[in-house]
Amino acid sequence: MTNPITDLAKSDCILVIGSNFAENHPIVSRWVFDAKQRGATLIVADTRFTPTAWQADIFLQLMPGTDTSLLNAMMHVILAEGLENTAFIEERTTGFEALAKTVAGYPPDQAARLTRVPAERIVAAARAYANAKAASLVYCMGVTQHTCGTQTVINCANLAMLCGQIGRPGTGVNPLRGQDNVQGACDMGALVNVYPGYQYVADPAVRTRFAEAWNCPEDQLSTKIGKTVVEMTHAADRGEIRGMLVMGENPIVGDPNSLHVRQALDRLEFLAVIELFMSETAELADVILPAASFAEKRGTKTTTDRRVQWLEKAVEPVGRSRPDWRILCDLAGRMGLQESFAYSSEEDILAEIRRVTPSYAGLAPDRLRSTPGGIPWPCPEADHPGTPILHTHAFARPGGRGVMQPVEYQPPAEETSTDFPLVLTSGRVVMHYNTGAMTRRTRALFRREPELFLQIHPDTAERFGIVSGSAARVISRRGAAVARVRVTRQIPTGVIFLPFHFPATNRLTTDALDPTAKIPEYKVAACRIEPVDETAIARDPG
Amino acid sequence: MTRVIYMDLARCTHCRACEVACEREHAGHSNIFVQLVDERLSIPINCRHCGDSPCIHVCPTHALHRETDEVVTIAPMLCIGCGLCVLACPFGAIWPDAVDKVSRKCDLCLHRLRDGLDPACVATCSARALSFGEMDSIIELSSGMPGRTVVSRAAGTTGTVVHFPDGWDHGRRGMS
Question: Hey, of B13, B36, B37, B176, which one would you mutate to test binding to chain A, going by the most A CBs within 10 A of its CB?
Answer without folding.
Answer: B13
